What we know:
Layout: E1 19-20, E2 28-29, E3 43-44, E4 48-57, E5 65-73, E6 76-80, E7 83-88, E8 95-98, E9 106-115, H1 122-126, E10 141-151, E11 155-164, E12 169-177, E13 184-194, E14 202-211, E15 215-221, E16 237-245, E17 248-256, E18 261-264, E19 267-270, E20 273-275, E21 279-282, H2 296-308, E22 313-316, H3 323-332, E23 335-337, E24 343-346, H4 351-368, E25 376-378, E26 381-385, H5 387-400, E27 405-407
Helix pairs in contact: 2-3, 4-5
Amino acid sequence: GEQEKLWNMDFAETVTLPGTTDSNRKGIENTNKSETTYLSRYYKYEGAAWYSRNIEIPADWKEKHIVLFLERTRPTTVWIDGREVGKCNYLSTPQEFNLTHFLAPGSHKLTIRVDNGKSIPGQIRSSSHACTESTQTNWNGIIGDLKLEARPQFHIRRIQVYPHADQKTVDVKIKLSNPFEQMIVAAVQIEMEAFNTGLEHHIKFNKNIVVQQDEIIFQIPMGDDALEWSEFSPTLYRLTANIQGENIQDSQSTTFGLRDFKAEGTQFNINGLTTFLRGKHDACVFPLTGHVPMDTAAWRRYFRIAKEYGINHCRFHSWCPPKACFEAADIEGFYLQPELPFWGKMEKGDTTLIHFLTKEGLQIQEAYGNHASFVMMAIGNELSGDQDAMVDMIARFRSEDGRHLYASGSNDYLGF
């Protein structure tokens, strides 16, 4: 479609987003009635699909930082008024595009090209429950939140919370977007409040700082009466950070649980208490839609049913669930193990695959790392090949984020 410059064209057909080509009955009708071992789709489509609509930017968005947020999709390219904004190929986490320099107040044309074909590495398409026809299918479309957001030019980009239950403290890392590239004197206020329990606990932390870089870190004591998170008492805190200075002001919130999930010898423990993981395997089997549910209510129902069977742990076979899943597990007190989207042979010389999986893993940590339920992570399922490549990848992930336990694959011994 790029040779035909489809970003300039008006399209005759309509679809509903969030949604997929399957849910919109687009693609090639499937007449094969003898399929086995995987989902039989009404319509099949693999390749580039183009989505376009007109948007209106309000006057009060002038000089704001504007972001296009696509919660879950396939590799995309975005155009505004025929000008290419950029590309992104995240499969496991949201995609975000900075449209600040493309959108003035008024009418504009937004075009998104979604490619579930060769833009995804071949090994991922054929060997991952993120894409295979066995379960959720290699769908094309955009699901979950699909929105434009306007933020101040100076804003909080991300908050990461690193709990230490044994010390009753949290490390709070605030990542900033500072387009002014100058020293800023600001007042930072951080509030933490338990919100899903009958017990009350509220903490307020204030500090005046000089912002000289794009990241600030605080260690905050939570007190002896701090409430811990586990399957037995899944207490959550809502943390709100506010930063204010001359001509700057922004706030952002996140949730977390005060917990330490560790391995001691051959056993796991949660906050020092030995726990036994009674787990289930999830291969993204959602045949009614052909894609993962993106709402918290659906996932809370899922975990409540699992708990009725005595299950407290879920391993996601070669895929990573969305934010709603982690949120539901946080509330219900469930231990989760997402995985990178791959099973098969990992070789150090395959730089395309290694780079793709490393990037996916770093994004998973960034997007979902605050969730108390996110306790373990594997770099794939039944991997074989170059052990050094796996060791290097795990070392990279551990150095970036120590909140989780890491493994070089599930059922890894089967591949050797």
